[in-house]
Amino acid sequence: MKKQELINLVLKITNSYEDYPFNNNNREKILWTTIRQKSNKKL
């Protein structure tokens, strides 16, 4: 399973969203992907 496939699966089965808190503002290079809960924004 590739990274994006895994992210899509987690997003599909949970109440969450994808976030990039440790990247530059212009996001030219994605360093970390985090999945946050929608209800309380925890990782």
Question: Would you kindly provide a written description of the structure presented here, covering whatever features stand out?
Answer:
By secondary structure, the protein is α+β, with helices and mostly antiparallel strands. It has one domain. Helix content is 26%, strand content 19%. It has one helix and two strands, in the order αββ. It has one helix at 3-13, and strands at residues 16-19, 34-37. It has a two-stranded antiparallel ribbon with strand order 1-2.
In short:
The protein is of the alpha+beta class and 43 residues long.
Topology of helices and strands:
Blueprint lengths: L2 H11 L2 E4 L14 E4 L6
Antiparallel strand pairs: 1-2
Describe the largest sheet: 2 strands, antiparallel
Total beta-strand segments: 2
Question: What's the overall geometry?
Answer: flat
Structural class of the helices, strands and pairings?
alpha+beta
